[in-house]
Amino acid sequence: MPSRDDTADMPGAGSVDPKDHPPIALPDEDWAWFCERCAALALPDPGPLRGRLEALFGHLVGVNRWLNLTTVSGAHDWLKLHVLDSLTGLCDTRLQHLAEGAPCVDLGSGGGYPGLPLALVSGGRVPWVLADARRKKAEFLAAAGTLVGPQVSGLHLRGSLAASAAPALHRRCQLVVNRAMGQADEVLAEAAPLLRPHGHLLIWKGPAFEGQERDRAAAAAPKLGYRVVGVRRLTLVAGDPERVLACYERTG
């Protein structure tokens, strides 16, 4: 990541406006690989999304020159580690049957994942809020959301403060998703003020989740008003470390 002095003369430095960070074309070879992996994982055909994904990629790369959003820089790794990984959430049936109008939140969204790809495939039926506790990243998320559609917004928010800072979301969200924000029991506590009764929390984890972290989350869940729904395991590419999708339902 360049220093502030290094970025001073870069076009668009300091700006999150998508107009300052134009789309970057995804190489055909990488795009074909991505489409094949989506098909292998029984995910929706991403063909119609290519143009908007190229816009999101260009925006991320441009802003990432001055704001630390991701260490991923190449198109192939971005498609695999951010977009494909995010879309695996659709393997959970709850994401396939979201109710129109009820908000979904990507908590601790950072660079916009998994929220941006999930909002793209929802086709405007569901409002998505990309929330981050860091103001600059929330500003980036709001700008990135405009590349997806009017149903996507960015918000400077800690989930634990939802009652006072975001009353429109407090206990009203049908789904909260989270990827790489901390230990699962901490995420359960952060998401609790956002979820309505019978709303769901879906957490992306790596193989290290199995063991103490999973046990701590299972112990914390009933105390925080959740029940454990289950864990789904998958791999993005054969030979890769296993990915884990842990799901919890809000009961109280």
Helices and strands in order:
Layout: H1 4-7, H2 28-40, H3 50-64, H4 75-87, H5 93-96, E1 104-107, H6 115-122, E2 128-132, H7 135-145, E3 152-156, H8 162-165, E4 173-179, H9 184-191, E5 195-205, H10 212-223, E6 226-234, E7 243-250
Parallel strand pairs: 1-2, 1-4, 2-3, 4-5
Antiparallel strand pairs: 5-7, 6-7
Helix pairs in contact: 2-4, 4-6, 9-10
Largest sheet: 7 strands, mixed
**Class computed from helices, strands and strand pairing:** alpha/beta
What would you say the CATH architecture of the largest domain is? 3-Layer(aba) Sandwich
Number of domains: 2
Number of helices: 10
How many beta strands in the DSSP annotation? Answer: 7
Question: What do we call the CATH homologous superfamily of the largest domain?
Answer: Vaccinia Virus protein VP39
Going across the major beta sheet, what is the strand order? 3-2-1-4-5-7-6
- The level 1 CATH classification of the largest domain is Alpha Beta
**Which range does the strand content fall in?**
15-25%
The arrangement of helices and strands along the chain is: HHHHHEHEHEHEHEHEE
Mean pLDDT: 92
Helix share, percent:
25-40%
Name the shape in a single word.
globular
CATH fold annotation of the largest domain: Rossmann fold
Terminal CA distance reads 43 Å
